[in-house]
Design brief:
The chain has 619 residues and is α/β, with parallel strands linked by helices. It contains 27 helices and 17 strands. The relative contact order is 0.09. The structure holds adenosine-5'-diphosphate and zinc ion.
Length: 619
Amino acid sequence: MPSAVAERDPDTLHDGLVGAREILRRTFGHQEFRGLQGEVIAEVLAGRSAMAVLPTGGGKSLCYQIPSILRPGLGLVVSPLIALMTDQVAAMQQSGVAAARLDSNIDPAEKGEIWRRIEAGELDLLYVSPEGLMQPWMLERLSQVPLALIAIDEAHCVSQWGHDFRPDYRMLGRLADLFPGVPRLAVTATADERTREDIRRELRLEQSAEFVASFARPELILSAERKRGAAHKRVVELVTARSGRSGVVYAGSRDNTEKLAQALRDAGVPALAYHAGLDRQVRIDRLEQFLQADEAVMVATIAFGMGVDKPDVRFVIHADPPGSIEAYWQEIGRAGRDGDPAEGITLYGAADMSWALRRTGERDVDPAVKQVQAHKVRQLYALLDGAGCRAATVRRYFGEEGVEACGQCDLCTGQVDLSDASQAAQKALSAAHRLAGRYGRGRLVDHLLGKTKDVSDHEAALSTWGIGQELSANAWRDLVEQLLFEGLLREDPNDGRPLVGVGDADAVRAVFRGERKVMVQTRHEAPEKATRKTRKGRETVTASPADQPLFEALRAWRSAEAKSQHVPPYVIFHDRTLTEIAQAKPGSRAALEQINGVGEGKLARYGAAVLGVVAGFAG
Ligand code: ADP
Ligand code: ZN
């Protein structure tokens, strides 16, 4: 739980939060603070800087939005991506908060108006990019304006140990000197101990309180499987089994996103490809399509995601594995932001691991950084290919203590059998040795089975030819994969036609001497898939069959409203809020205001329309 550094008196905390709670209820329509929100807000309201590490969906934005509204002056939010700012500003405006963003896309006339509002003290929140903010003229102009606070969103971008390092973030340390009296709040969802230290040092927050919430995401149901056979086929299978829901499929290359999206469309799935190689306007259109839809699948490279706050993403599938555990948690974490159950499914292979290690080795960075990055790759594959609860492994990785198994991931619900395959491993290693790294995996397996097509006399005369009849081709393929994971075999990329050779000599010798065992896993799924649906997290809210027509009517109204305003539907109301309305069927404004997610601004804007839709169903 929290590891807040500063000591504070509970009574002061309480007093300081009266105003904040009022805003939480009136403006945002939420009843209570979630997790550490209250503590973080109290710290900033007291004028002190802080760092907050809260999980995705934990409500980081309120931590700076509420103090920006309450404290005199302008709240400045530094955010790495325009998409992130656009979404938040739209959501703020819906709630009646005076918010704007300044970035290169804003036209001059609008810019002038925004500056007028800033200087007249009319604006509560201003979103800027780090490059934008650190321009001398911008700093000069802002120094004339009273500031409520400076929030640094996605603060892990400041650290080169993290996975999203953005050199522009490094400049933000200067804010401490430039705006000495202004509290600064760094927020992020992912940061291990080392990254956290780095953030504090870079942003000059060494003396400030640090709030670290649990990394638990009980709504996420995790699983991972080794790639087998045609990768696209498996992804199509996984996605079509989840039809009617929105999801994200991450693929490792631009080309792959296009091909996968096409394969999915061929299977009748409304899938879109998204990557940095697409024309800007195409990207904007596809993003909008994805955000607007109640059912859409985005097949994307990691260029897609940061700042995409679509709350009803029900699954994230990695067709190719992520780059690190941080990236895993952040990418998977884009599912289930509304707190309802969602799945994270990862496909991975030994080839992905060796590719990631090779890329790390080739990077033009400090050797110490390289070493850390290679270690991170290994930790990721230990998680994916391991046998212990996935959620617990991630949380321990982030430094949480006393973590319990989640009870719902594939490893908690299924069963992993380990069997000793050391003898078969010796055969495979000898064969690889005899074939001297001239062939790929398929040929190695054929060799073991004695099924090599047009085998040469030389190969047929080798003592290892056909010595592996006791196992099936699939079993050999799995074993070869395992040996690659363990570094006992190594794959030479050979321009896309990888060749298999013997790996670490000492380790291989140990296998032959019987000092090292090779264990293979067989994973069995839980017999009852349904058991996975029992969750420990927040209560799922779904409209009962009787309330379904009203829910659909509310969704249709929201959809039309969103279209006419050019905003995503969820900035108007979340599904969860519509579900509660469909259940409660409020007959008055006072009753409607009781519903979670209905604040004053939205009541004024949409109260009459929503009550109208509900009334249409009353008679
Ligand atoms: P993140 O930490 O991922 O940036 P956000 O700030 O986007 O999370 O919040 C995630 C969602 O949780 C938002 O839709 C927000 O409205 C909701 N939320 C935030 N705080 C609360 C709260 N105290 N009670 C209920 N919902 C909340
Ligand atoms: Zn588990």
